[in-house]
Specification:
By secondary structure, the protein is mainly alpha-helical. Helix content is 67%, strand content 0%. Helix 2 crosses helix 3 and helix 7 packs across helix 8. 29% of the residues are buried. The chain binds a DNA duplex through helix 2, helix 3, helix 6, helix 8 and helix 9.
Length: 211
Amino acid sequence: MNSIRKLFDILFDYYGPQHWWPCQTGARWEIITGAILTQNTSWTNVEKAIGNLLSAGLMSPESVLATPDTELQELIRPAGFFKQKSAYLKAMASFMLERELAFEQSADVWALRKELLSVKGVGRETADSILLYAFNKPIFVIDAYTRRVAERHLHLDGTLHYDILQKTFMDALPPDVAIYNEYHALIVALCKESCHKTACGEICKKIANFS
DNA sequence: AGCCAGGACTGAG
DNA sequence: CTCAGTCATGGC
């Protein structure tokens, strides 16, 4: 058993299933919207922006594209970087209108990833989050939390290149959407409980026993 | 009063 | 390819 799998087992045993992505409607476009709005931004701010969009009846690619930039920017303002992100949302909305069906049908995850990376505003993490949580494709998401946990609990170099770190996790795990989905969610759960605090909680002691 | 949050783009070297 | 500068709000 490798330590990456062990950590998953410990976290799953401790926290249980997380049923991500955090979402009001569960709609695919809301997941995609959240993935873009949360770029370098706390989730509480993203929730406000998403709430504004829902209240305004603008939670779909079509309605977003039909909204003037300045109006869209006001709605997503709480999520920060609102000028950039309004453009990113529209770019992604156009892309979805064009490619959503093809994405549902294709099993070539890496080809889909490459396509997503060509959309303005979509980097590696955003692309992988969309693939995993909006389309249920088997790909592992690396983010700031993952890097923190990798360094702190798995003795890995948290500054490794995204693709390298991603491959490290994927090679150590079964190619299973449910596992990739849960693992990332569990890492977030762990970080929200203890990684920001100076003192580690009970869970960190359990992890320490193995590593 | 700063510092930072579930990044990505751009330009420079 | 690596690196700094830029983008912006809200919570602590």
